[in-house]
Amino acid sequence: MTLDQLAAVAEEAADAAGAAIRPHFRSQLAAELKADMSPVTLADRAAEAAIRAVLGARTPAIPILGEEEGGTLREEGDLWVVDPIDGTRAFITGRPLFGTLIALVRHGVPVIGVIDQPSLGERWVGIAGQATRFASPIGGAGTARSRACGHLAEAELASTSPAVYAGADRQGLQRLSGQVRRTSWGGDCYIYGLLALGLIDIVTDATMQPWDWAALVPVVEGAGGRMTDWRGEALRFGTDGRVLAVGDARLLAPSIAELTDR
Fold it and tell me: 200 - beta bridge partners?
């Protein structure tokens, strides 16, 4: 299959996940705590099962790594990487700042990424070498484009939660936050989509797993941004979980300098 055909499969899987998620949204669904103390619900598990059913039927030769059901992380060949509900804390508290993430990683490089927000009907699709597509009930379908912003003092910074930062990472975030126009909190994968739309300029996180970031890379970079680790290196399996996305490449070096006190 071509990348376009595989992206269509990923969108089909996102449709299936959305159908599994929407009946549970704002239903006071009980959450359990996993071993890492992060919450999981019936909706997470149902959505991942729905995604796996589509991907398994349409691309049986491609293995799947999912947050809830696991799998084997590998760099050779193709691998689907799935997070059925990124932002479960938002989901269980009724906030529409969560999303389904589906990525195709080829030889360790994310080449397809889908961010789907099923309760709002919004979707970003990134394919390597192509402009990111965005569809919304409000604005229809088109392309996403990050905005020009060459100086930290003019930048909007966002991050999921200050709780994910500790020690030197927290100090780095405080330095960066002190240099930008504003800092806002909350949003998980959704704020990366907003960066791709030119509404946020910098997003950073410190404890991300492959299923958290793999789908975001093609979306951000297809919109004209950059996404790296805190050293400015491309994200690969084995990264330390510290992730930085900028809408304008000119923000990358000064953001890294503040985060790492270089």
Answer: none
Distance separating alpha carbons of residues 128 and 192, to the nearest angstrom = 17
- In a 3-state reduction of DSSP, which class is residue 137? coil
Rounded Cα–Cα distance for residues 19 and 241 (Å): 30
CA-wise closest residue to 152 among 254, 220, 1 = 254
Query: What is the chain's alpha carbon radius of gyration, rounded to the nearest angstrom?
Result: 17
The band of 261, judged by pLDDT with boundaries at 50, 70 and 90, is confident
- Whether the CA torsion 187, 119, 79, 111 is positive or negative: it is negative
Query: How do the domains of the chain map onto residue ranges?
Result: 3-143, 152-260
Is the distance from CB of 7 to CB of 125 less than 8 angstroms? yes
Distance CA 206, CA 212 (A): 11
CATH topology of domain 152-260: D-Maltodextrin-Binding Protein; domain 2 (3.40.190)
Report whether pLDDT(30) > 60.
Answer: no
Range with the poorest average pLDDT among 13-27, 106-120, 142-156, 213-227: 13-27
On whether the CB atoms of residues 164 and 204 are closer than 8 A, the answer is no
CATH of 3-143, one of 3.40.190.10, 1.20.1560.10, 3.30.540.10, 3.40.50.150: 3.30.540.10
> Which two structure tokens, joined as six digits, stand for 132?
């990111």
pLDDT confidence of residue 72: 81
d(CA 103, CA 219): 10
87: alpha, beta or left, given left = phi > 0 and alpha = psi -120 to 50?
left
pTM: 0.93
